């Protein structure tokens, strides 16, 4: 039976995107296929679970939650494990992903209800351009008629070309774009004025765009 490393399991409100304020059970997986400059996840002190032991650990924690958030790290690195665990879950599954593993998404998509998919900007993440693989990922999700939105972490270095590529993806796949100002040490790294300017640039090209900061950091919760 497959085993995976999980950093933490906890109940809290969702602090990002259109589901802000919903109470969720977070399962944070260790390991990621990317190394973004702004990543604030510490994977030390992980726990080891099998699908059965994860079921036993979580089954009494679901009473008051809206959904189960699979987060990380990158949960899609563990699709075989998830295909064994998720049949035990009796809540909607909310997948938080970097949107770079479309083939893995295909293997698990029937068990996922909501997809929070990142668009990684080179100017913020320090990664090379990933727009082509994001395109394939969104195509896979939309083919299966899944609820999906795109979260875009940005700072003041965002470029015109990045804005164009993001809005082109939004238009092509008819997905909501959620702009999320980058934070450093839980503090906003982008001024309110600059955030509004960047939002306006997006709205001129694609009206289905919103600006939502990391609300849980303002509230001081996990």
Set out the fold topology.
Elements (H helix, E strand, L loop, with lengths): L3 E10 L9 E7 L17 E3 L1 H8 L8 E5 L7 H7 L7 E5 L4 H7 L5 E5 L3 H4 L5 H13 L3 E8 L5 H14 L2 E6 L1 E2 L2 E2 L3 H14 L3 E3 L3 H5 L3
Parallel strand pairs: 2-4, 4-5, 5-6, 6-7, 7-8, 8-11
Antiparallel strand pairs: 1-2, 1-3, 9-10
Give a description of the structure.
The protein has 222 residues and is α/β, with parallel strands linked by helices. It has a single domain (4-219), classed as Aldolase class I (TIM Barrel). It has eight helices and eleven strands. It has helices at residues 51-58, 79-85, 102-108, 122-125, 131-143, 160-173, 192-205, 215-219, and strands at residues 4-13, 23-29, 47-49, 67-71, 93-97, 114-118, 147-154, 176-181, 183-184, 187-188, 209-211. The strands form two sheets. A nine-stranded mixed beta sheet has the order 3-1-2-4-5-6-7-8-11. Helix 2 packs parallel to helix 3, helix 3 runs parallel beside helix 5 (131-143) and helix 5 runs parallel beside helix 6 (160-173). The longest helix has 14 residues, at 160-173. It is globular, with a radius of gyration of 17 Å. The protein starts with a strand and ends with a helix.
What is the string of helix and strand elements?
Answer: EEEHEHEHEHHEHEEEHEH
**Helix content range:** 25-40%
Overall strand count: 11
Q: Major sheet, described briefly? A: 9 strands, mixed
Number of helices: 8
Principal-axis shape: globular
Mean pLDDT figure? 93
Counting helices, strands and paired strands, the structural category is: alpha/beta
Taken together, the total number of domains comes to 1
- Classify the beta-strand content into a percent band: 25-35%
In CATH terms, the superfamily is: Aldolase class I
| C-alpha Rg (nearest Å) | 17 Å
Main-sheet strand order equals: 3-1-2-4-5-6-7-8-11
CATH fold-type name: TIM Barrel
User: Looking at the chains present, what oligomeric state does this protein adopt?
Assistant: single chain
Point out poorly predicted stretches.
none
By CATH reckoning, the class would read: Alpha Beta
Give the termini separation: 31 Å
